[in-house]
Specification:
Elements: H1 9-30, H2 42-54, H3 69-81, H4 85-107, H5 113-124, H6 127-132, H7 139-154, H8 158-169, H9 188-211, H10 223-231, H11 259-267, H12 274-291, H13 293-306, H14 319-322, H15 327-332, H16 340-352, H17 358-375, H18 381-384, H19 388-402, H20 405-421, H21 435-445, H22 449-463, H23 474-487, H24 491-504, H25 508-512
Helix pairs in contact: 1-4, 1-5, 2-3, 4-5, 4-7, 5-19, 7-8, 8-9, 10-12, 12-13, 16-19, 16-20, 21-22, 22-23, 23-24
């Protein structure tokens, strides 16, 4: 079968409609819950950061701990709409639809038009992608940029491809991992002509960091502590939780401070600039690896195996939890491992289809390097998601070439996917996301204390599934329950929660809420 030729803009627009429709339906469904209006973890930071930008503080949070492109884009939107979670979620939905159009455009040059459309629709309805398309997370933007870069490189428009790769890097520096694959994409001379366009956005961010006092931070400084979280002595390969650290003692000027950033400074030697803090964490990670290389090798193998599991391991948001508010996600994000089994179904035909072409080698190397960038840190659904459209493209293109025999082999791939995933049963429940806790806080914000109480209890039960030192917001949930009980006059129940909390987590109460044991209850959670 031969490719159908590059699709027209109109055809790409049609291919994006399923993704757009799914995203809009999911957004409407999720917006019926308080959780939708109170972003979680990274999304909360993006919301606060964009609000600062919209109010005129364009270089807020510089020197950057996290790459700034998405908050800048979101801040530009907020300048027109005001700080609106709904507007931000609509932006994510549109970006997801654009990514489906881009995938269709790429795929139409690799396979027949019908197969390309099927790949685009499959991606547009990918459960995790639809779930994140209604949040303020970076993934929809990053996927658009990395797909656009690949598209232009595949069409031999090297300068445009390099520009979009530079933009992808200032959205998520992990995009830099694909640079070695560029040698298969174009001749060195053409690549060299694209380098200035690649460097332009990176240099702009670097200049902002330098003017803010840290020329050592080129894009962002979060890489060091994230490397430690993913490979340190307590790493399990999929939990992205900050190391335990004392809370900051200073009053923050900006509206939000990330707990991982706070921990990175609290545990590092004092007086270091952000880039030096990041370097300190890198050195600490390497020292740990040198002391126990066998553990690190086993951990990397574990993370590599997790990349092939069908489970969508939560990070920030738990897509499986969101199904209680979105019937659409109940269909698109099934716990049995669909849609990851789609990739497994394509795998045998792709493997059996013969020697890869140079283009396929370029795509395979691009995909492999992106995967290495994930395995180097921690494997979750969120960080694995940008690989999915490229995996769909590669596997579908090769399976289509093998023809109907790919359909005959598909059950073998599905069986293999299920077998590979069996050792990871329960990994979703043990992941580092406690959605009932964040949901309880959202209900508190809207004055729904009865529902919040039930969710805090669910959060405590959810956190009990971990056997390590990570409390998974169990301590915070116990404290917030005590505060709720005290506010409503149930002092005996409040005292029991405080007693249990002090017994399980000595010193936690006074470190977070000074004076609470003397009756100064203060606000629960983030209220």
């Amino acid at each position: 079968m031969t490719p159908g030729g590059r699709a027209s803009p109109g055809a790409c627009l049609l291919a994006a409609l399923p993704a757009l429709a799914a995203g809009l339906v999911n957004l409407v469904m999720l917006s019926r819950s308080p959780l939708f209006f109170y972003p979680v973890v990274d999304a909360a930071w993006h919301h606060a950061w964009a609000g600062s930008i919209a109010s005129g503080n364009i270089t807020a949070y510089a020197p950057y701990f996290r790459a700034p492109l998405y908050p800048l884009l979101l801040g530009g939107l907020y300048a027109f709409t005001g700080p609106s979670v709904t507007a931000g979620a609509l932006l994510s939905t549109v970006l997801h639809a654009i990514s489906a159009a881009l995938l269709f455009r790429i795929a139409s040059g690799w396979m027949p038009r019908g197969a390309a459309a099927a790949a685009a629709v499959c991606w547009g309805l990918w459960g995790t992608a639809v779930a994140y398309s209604s949040t303020l997370l970076i993934e929809p933007l990053y996927i658009v940029l990395i797909l656009a870069s690949f598209l232009f490189l595949d069409e031999d428009r090297t300068r445009s491809g390099m520009l979009f790769l530079g933009l992808a890097a200032i959205a998520r520096p992990g995009a830099l991992a694909v640079i070695p694959a560029l040698l298969l994409a174009s001749k060195p001379g053409r690549l060299a002509r694209g380098i200035p366009l690649f460097l332009a956005p990176v240099a702009a961010v670097w200049a902002v960091n330098a003017l803010a006092g840290d020329a050592g931070t080129v894009i962002s400084s979060q890489g060091g502590i994230n490397l430690y979280i993913g490979n340190g002595p307590e790493a399990d390969g999929f939990t992205a939780f900050a190391p335990a650290a004392p809370p900051p003692q200073t009053e923050e000027v900006l509206p939000y401070r990330d707990n991982v950033e706070a921990a990175s400074f609290a545990l590092a030697p004092p007086g270091l600039r952000p880039s030096e803090v990041s370097a300190w964490w890198v050195l600490k990670t390497l020292e740990e690896a040198a002391r126990n290389p066998g553990r690190v090798i086993a951990l990397l193998a574990r993370k590599a195996a997790l990349m092939f599991a069908t489970q969508e391991i939560p990070c920030n948001y738990d897509g499986y939890y969101l199904r209680r508010y979105s019937p659409l996600l109940s269909v698109l994000l099934l716990p049995v491992g669909i849609p990851m089994l789609v990739l497994w179904a394509l795998l045998p035909g792709a493997v059996a289809s013969g020697r890869p072409t140079r283009r396929e080698l370029f795509l395979a190397s691009w995909l492999l390097l992106m995967a290495c960038g994930v395995v180097a840190f921690f494997v979750t659904a969120r960080f694995r998601l940008p690989l999915v459209p490229f995996a769909l493209l590669l596997l579908a293109a090769r399976a289509v070439r093998y023809g109907r025999r790919s359909l005959i082999l598909a059950p073998v791939g599905i069986a293999a996917g299920i077998a590979v995933s069996l050792p990871w049963r329960g990994v979703v429940e043990r992941s580092g996301v406690n959605m009932p806790f964040h949901d309880a806080l959202a209900h508190c914000e809207q004055g729904q204390t009865g529902e919040a109480r039930a969710l805090f209890l669910e959060a405590i039960d959810r956190a009990s599934g971990r056997a390590d030192s990570i409390s998974l917001n169990r301590a915070e949930a116990m404290l917030d329950l005590a505060v709720l009980e005290a506010r409503e006059g149930r002092t005996e129940q409040a005292a029991r929660w405080l007693e249990a909390l002090e017994s399980e987590y000595p010193g936690f109460i006074e470190s977070r809420r000074p004076g609470i044991l003397q009756g100064n209850t203060g606000p629960p959670g983030r209220l």
